[in-house]
Design goal:
Elements: E1 16-25, E2 30-37, H1 40-45, E3 53-58, E4 62-67, E5 77-83, H2 87-94, E6 100-107, E7 120-126, H3 130-142, E8 150-156, H4 168-173, E9 177-182, E10 192-193, H5 196-202, E11 211-216, H6 219-231, E12 239-242, E13 258-259, E14 262-263, H7 264-267, E15 270-272, H8 273-280
Parallel strand pairs: 7-8, 7-11, 8-9, 9-10, 11-12
Antiparallel strand pairs: 1-2, 1-6, 2-5, 3-4, 3-6, 12-15, 13-14
Helix pairs in contact: 5-6
Bound molecules: flavin-adenine dinucleotide.
Length: about 280
């Protein structure tokens, strides 16, 4: 039996009170925040699809988009991995456990995983780009028998920057081929050195035309990964990227995240590479 992952209908304007239940340091400058939904009826009905994001709101400071990094089966609280970038993310990093903030969501289109049962999958993450892929990884581990080969390549500048590294052996034991790689190794690093694209280039792909690639990370990385995958025989329509732009309303009204003819918040953040390839190359868009 399979489970379709769909988000329920909800009021996109309503900000829910959430409490910081746990804060976990991940890699330098990055932490994970588990937010417990305060209202019991909301907590019991809140669902999200892998790849979706929430808007986190600190009164007086602002509201920002943060991907959900939790297992889609978790209930009552929802985790976000956050890189300290500016005002709001810095304030989030300073919140003590027990503090209250606001959350709207979930928003956006998730990874189209239900369309690809039976296929081989290649997931490619750069840096904190692994966060929006983590719910997908949880889903794949729970439904491992529904898919063919699954390869997961993740890269960081150095070993201390590899996100969720304590989970890699469980992911490997759960049937994923996990390939962490770093730009610069150190004496303690026994693994790959080089960019994620170098691993992708050498990856054993048994049936490229039946392989789907999903990637999240710096746009340049996703663009090169897409070229390599397509050169190796993956169909362009089976390549997906997750994009980021400043956003405000999260429901396609304000226009902040317009990207060519589409809005990242409601048409994305996950797009088929086919749909965005030409505009990804336009500088400053
Ligand atoms: C769909 C989506 C999902 C996201 N998921 C995550 C996540 O899981 N974890 C995470 O840490 N961040 C995520 N982000 C990025 C996050 O929203 C921004 O880092 C955040 O808005 C920064 O807010 P701030 O007030 O701390 O920084 P600001 O003071 O607003 O900005 C600090 C710096 O970051 C730049 N910046 C701000 N917003 C963005 C953006 N959206 N994209 C690129 N650069 C930006 C600014 O230009 C500035 O240089 C996501 C963004 C989107 C659109």
């Amino acid at each position: 039996m399979t489970s379709a992952i769909t988000a329920p209908r909800f009021d996109p304007w309503r900000t829910h009170a959430v409490r910081v239940a746990r804060k976990t340091p991940e890699v330098p400058g990055v932490f994970t925040c588990d937010l417990a939904i305060q209202e019991a009826t909301v907590a019991s009905t809140y669902r999200f699809a892998p790849g979706q994001f929430n808007m986190l709101y600190i009164p007086g400071l602002g509201e920002i988009a943060i991907s959900i990094c939790d297992d889609p089966q978790s209930r009552g609280s929802v985790a976000h991995t956050i890189r300290i970038a500016g005002n709001v993310t810095h304030a989030l990093s300073e919140l003590a456990v027990g503090s209250t903030l606001g959350l709207r969501g979930p928003f956006g289109v998730g990874w189209p995983i239900d369309e690809y049962r039976g296929r081989d999958l290649v997931l490619v993450a750069g840096g904190i780009g692994l966060a929006p892929l983590r719910p997908l990884i949880c889903h794949l581990l729970a439904h491992r028998q529904e898919f063919g080969e699954i390869h997961l390549i993740m890269g960081a500048r150095e070993p201390s920057g590899l996100l969720y590294s304590a989970e890699y052996s469980a992911w490997q034991d759960g049937g994923l081929n996990v390939y962490p790689t770093v730009d610069r190794g150190d004496d303690s690093w026994p693994g790959h050195i080089g960019m994620v694209t170098a691993i992708l280039d050498r990856l054993p792909l048994c049936r490229p035309a039946e392989t789907v690639m999903m990637s999240c990370g710096p746009e340049t990385m996703m663009w090169y990964a897409a070229q390599i995958a397509i050169d190796r025989g993956v169909r362009p329509e089976s390549v997906y990227v997750s994009l980021e732009r400043n956003m405000n309303c999260a429901i396609g009204l304000c226009g902040h995240c317009q990207f060519g003819p589409q809005f990242l918040c409601k048409d994305g953040p996950i797009f088929s590479y086919n749909r965005v390839a030409s505009i990804m190359k336009v500088a400053d868009l």
